[in-house]
Amino acid sequence: MTQHVAVVIGAGGMGQAIARRVGPSAHLLVADHSQEVLDAATAQLTDEGHQVTAQRVDVSARKPVAALAEQAASLGPVQSVVHTAGLSPVQAPVPAILAVDLLGVALVLEEFGEVVAPGGAGLVIASMAGHFHPGLPREQERQLAATPADELLSLPICDASAFADSGTAYAFAKYANRLRVQAASTAWGARGARINSISPGVIATPMGRAELGSEHGDGMRMMIDASNAKRTGTPADIAAAAEFLLGPAASFISGTDLLVDGGAVAAVTSLTP
Amino acid sequence: MTQHVAVVIGAGGMGQAIARRVGPSAHLLVADHSQEVLDAATAQLTDEGHQVTAQRVDVSARKPVAALAEQAASLGPVQSVVHTAGLSPVQAPVPAILAVDLLGVALVLEEFGEVVAPGGAGLVIASMAGHFHPGLPREQERQLAATPADELLSLPICDASAFADSGTAYAFAKYANRLRVQAASTAWGARGARINSISPGVIATPMGRAELGSEHGDGMRMMIDASNAKRTGTPADIAAAAEFLLGPAASFISGTDLLVDGGAVAAVTSLTP
Amino acid sequence: MTQHVAVVIGAGGMGQAIARRVGPSAHLLVADHSQEVLDAATAQLTDEGHQVTAQRVDVSARKPVAALAEQAASLGPVQSVVHTAGLSPVQAPVPAILAVDLLGVALVLEEFGEVVAPGGAGLVIASMAGHFHPGLPREQERQLAATPADELLSLPICDASAFADSGTAYAFAKYANRLRVQAASTAWGARGARINSISPGVIATPMGRAELGSEHGDGMRMMIDASNAKRTGTPADIAAAAEFLLGPAASFISGTDLLVDGGAVAAVTSLTP
Amino acid sequence: MTQHVAVVIGAGGMGQAIARRVGPSAHLLVADHSQEVLDAATAQLTDEGHQVTAQRVDVSARKPVAALAEQAASLGPVQSVVHTAGLSPVQAPVPAILAVDLLGVALVLEEFGEVVAPGGAGLVIASMAGHFHPGLPREQERQLAATPADELLSLPICDASAFADSGTAYAFAKYANRLRVQAASTAWGARGARINSISPGVIATPMGRAELGSEHGDGMRMMIDASNAKRTGTPADIAAAAEFLLGPAASFISGTDLLVDGGAVAAVTSLTP
């Protein structure tokens, strides 16, 4: 009997919540940049009865991402690929944001697009920040969507000096994630697999709390108060959407993004002249 | 014991499929413009054991929409509101498209936004056609989002003469649906309810078949062949997404759109220079 | 790309409803004893965009069941096997009930237990009638559970003359279905697949209506009135439970039965001295 | 806007996993006998963004259970009631098992049966141990099902001296839980609410690990190896089944038990002469 594999990249709050959803029927391959976070998540998930293989990964470099994909394929049919790894603008400078949040997603889409099983599905955790990005001319969108990952950071529009601050780079990267997922849908489809993204709003994770505690905290709280849900999201909200998008009921959904933000983007858009 | 109410406007292929999903625990209020379609759907759903109240409605006029909302509220707490009524560009001229597909959605959002129960949810069936719309300047987007329904068709951008053909008006209306849903999210949230849209791709309904049989059929088939799923969608695909968005697992999703198109928009976008 | 196969045996009300749930991501292999029912269901499902292969089957004989399993395996990995075929006591005499409702299930479990894919799942539609059966001594339970299908009807306890009427034989067969599913769980597990049953209550299908129109109708209505749900079930109620049991969220559920009867058995049991 | 309430009694591994599923759209009322367990679970769930009210409860006495139900009703419409509190036979002597696992469930069913909201649902976590119980004569079943909670432990069959050891009392209590849930279905139905139980197999919780480490551990491991799933369950497996049974898709399921044991009972039954 061959057990299928579910890969969860990024073992923080959302990664663990999603791992619990896809874990019971799978061999979990959990990856993170931080050995400490990885060890803690692996211990917790193993303790809860999941079958877990752990592997460190730096998503901003092709070699470790390719090694992770190879490891996944060696464990069995790769049914689910969930990419939650990301740096927050309150945690990192512009170049790191671009390396992890922009290039990292591109590398994962490329490498796992070559090992995902027929009937499998991938999911990238983007951010509502990408929905606040004003958009780009079509030609630049195409560059972000289609430039091979290895050349992505060499694009003029991806030059670190082009960004005023980490927040701007973050919104750009998360906007680009959606373009990248959209473009990857065709290649993943050729293998009989799907790929989508979720754009979370403010979620109660350590990263979310760091953002609420930053200089942007007051603005974020105003946005939450004005929103439909009037609350922060929980990892469980994201995990529920992830389970739906990765599961058989979503077999006609690919190449798109689902905004799970409690209506925050809607509220801000409605209030913006 | 008070049974909750699920309203399904538009009793065609998708409407029936969604009614079956939300029906078992609810009192179904099913509405359609066509008495014949309404009678057939009511007979079928009743035959399958659902509790159904039927009411004719012309969604392009406030009075019948308000009467439908009043009827819904009189039957019990209005838990679900599903708006599937729409005209296809192969069925109708520009003014009818604007009246039903643009104004109709606006009226339903306004009237049902005043009767939906706390914890309830609404869903508008838009179309992937709206995702092919090139977008509008922010000021015009705001007009489409926020102009009271009764004045909507008086906006210069909504003038029938501004549209080359029904297809153009249809894409415009479906694009506007998303703006309208986004803007309605705040008002619905004030009642503790959510509102979202689904943008279906080519679905195997009578309307979908009519489109495949039209002059646009060859283009649609090419798009399907290039897409991730390489198939037309089924009413069940849309119903599954509807069930998710209307249900408790989606409580942090509001004011947004979910594209359920088999990756067709992604494929076309990737192929477009 | 290999598409997985979902087999639906019995193309009546419940079979169609379940086919719609498992159909979108699968190649549907639909089977029925009646060419007329099969043609109608195939036409309807194809019309709704599902990919359907139809095959006639007499589930009371090994050869056609084996041929159906072979056909399934030839179409792709057999992910789902749903057995809804059955005769109602108001439709058939004792020998036919035993042949279809008892032997038929045993044959399907044996033949499809040899072709189901790893990660796949099977589902047998039994009946709440089996829950009203008083039970049997352990030795007879073991006979019903473990006797090879080909010898099943030769057991003394399965002799047609042992049953007062079709209703008694029906309850016996449906009780035996659960024992059979329970016993099959180990063999299916050896292939990495699961197998369960659902015991529906009174469902609004043609068969359910026939029963409500029979001499047992008054008793059934009293039972419904006394039950938790105070309504007949819909095919959608059964389809929702089927989707859950066949899906990844139920990966730790096997060899058991789920009663989906609106609390009718509970009500009758509570009222019985 | 009135937010609905989800009550989770027992804040251990399963309680927390279920709380995460029902929590996002609800006000969680979490209760436990241990202040330490309660504090830890409350901190964790609050940290994940859930709205939590905590209350200590001793489920073996009416007063605190009634106080908990009153608190629930004061917070809003009581949509979900999940009873996971229980003592394991490796943790407690016979009288404690009977007080918590037998009487506790009876009290919760009575008290919350008077506050659950229309459309709400309850869930009792029983155990596969109840499925290994050989059954009782009908008259004793009726006593266990229908005797008012306050008199339950005074029944001769519930006398502590009647049980050889804690394990026997545990199986008896868990068997009785199902009878009790079945009988409660009518009363809950009169309020428009449902009630069911789940019987988990060996689950990777601290309680499950304690059992695997006990004198019964070897037998349990043999059972797991012989089972369909060949693994211990995870809290997520139970939470997924709980979410299904508590949700709208299960509106026709009441007064019954769902065995979530990886096929362990089926394996043991098949191997038992």
UniProtKB/TrEMBL annotation, chains A, B, C, D:
Instruction: State one Pfam family annotation.
Output: adh_short_C2
Q: Which GO terms describe its molecular function?
A: oxidoreductase activity, acting on the CH-OH group of donors, NAD or NADP as acceptor
Note the Gene3D superfamilies from the entry: NAD(P)-binding Rossmann-like Domain (3.40.50.720)
Please give the PANTHER family that the UniProt record associates with this protein: SHORT-CHAIN DEHYDROGENASES/REDUCTASES FAMILY MEMBER
Write out the similarity annotation.
Belongs to the short-chain dehydrogenases/reductases (SDR) family.
State the name under which the record lists this protein: SDR family oxidoreductase
Q: Which organism is it from?
A: Actinomadura montaniterrae
